[in-house]
Amino acid sequence: MFHRFGVWTTVGILAVVMARGAAFGQSEGAESADDSGAPLRALAEARGLHVGAAVHPATMDDEGLALLAKQFNQVTPENHMKWSFLERRRGSHDWTVADRIVDFAEKNGMRVKGHALIWHGSVPDWFHKIPDEERWRAASEHITAVMTRYKGRVHSWDVVNEALDDDGRRIRDTVFSEGGRADYIARAFRLARELDPEAKLIYNDYGCEGLGKKSNLQYELMADLLKAKVPIDEVGLQMHILGPEGIPNPADVAANARRLTRLGLSVNISEMDVALAAFPGGTMEEKLRRQAELYQEILAACVGIEGFSGVTFWGYTDRNTWVNGLNARKGLHEPEAPLLFDRSLKPKLAFFGVQRVLSKTP
Ligand code: XIL
After folding, report:
1. Structure pTM?
2. Which of 50, 81, 114, 177 could make an SS bond with 77 (beta carbons 3.0 to 4.6 A apart)?
3. 97-98-100-104 Cα dihedral, nearest 10 degrees
4. Nearest protein Cα to ligand 1, atom 13
5. Are 322 and 313 spatial neighbours (Cβ–Cβ below 8 Å)?
6. Local structure of 20: helix, strand or coil
7. In whole angstroms, what is the distance from residue 279 CA to residue 337 CA?
């Protein structure tokens, strides 16, 4: 399963770009993105890893795209490959933003991770209205339309997203599972493999980062599916850290990733962000420092694991983060700052923390 690692060709540049800004503590207002030291992508490529960001039209202006192309070697559409975005009306697709992202990635030597083919959180309204017995046909038509369009251009796919219930005891009851039946998972992966045999196929979920009930269930599900010869290549650990209770123990994350690799799967961190709300009390400066340390500790626990393929951050600038949307629903309107670059695209301590981890000799 590890045959797709290490294929980037720009490894050589690492030797000359040792991370100038790798130490914490640089936050002068005059600092520009050019003072940021070695680009993350060069450091990641030297280790055969991907470093990606979720992208959204709101942050795809010229300045943002230049920063993305400089720092990252992979992009993931935050929303625009989701079913509800692509096929608002049955049979009529809007590929505009997805195409733009794929074109951008290709022009800049970046990979695309597609997200997410089957997710109960992004089905179009019309899907809820069709009879149960038509659902799989509609879902398979959707998978077929998307994977055929991007065949050979999307390197990996989140094929099934968030199929496990939060209680960690069962498959989530959704429009796809019809009372908790898991067959749709196997069917989706088999179809995806048929449609694009070269694409890496990923199971992605949250709350399964460290060790615990839900991650045990994820592990068992993966083991069972592999035993049944279902073509799964990789597991994505989302890693949204939104509050103090959501901070996983880095050693547990590593142990969890290791046991998954022993099944023959690779593992990635797929949607990482670390909200400042995870560090109640203290000054803003302290929060930003602790945020950087946590990014660093979690990634340091993972990057050395054979079979760890890389990390995707759920956005790149604090100008646009889904956490603000989550908070607004709870009546909280203070802007969050969970990502690597601030609202003016200046690298934060978190950026330098990640850079430091990736700079260490493997
Ligand atoms: C989120 C996006 O960031 C938001 O813009 C959107 O409104 C809802 O979805 N897990 C996932 C992602 O797999 O697709 C979610 O993305 C965040 C949680």
Report:
1. 0.92
2. 81
3. 140
4. 161
5. no
6. coil
7. 12
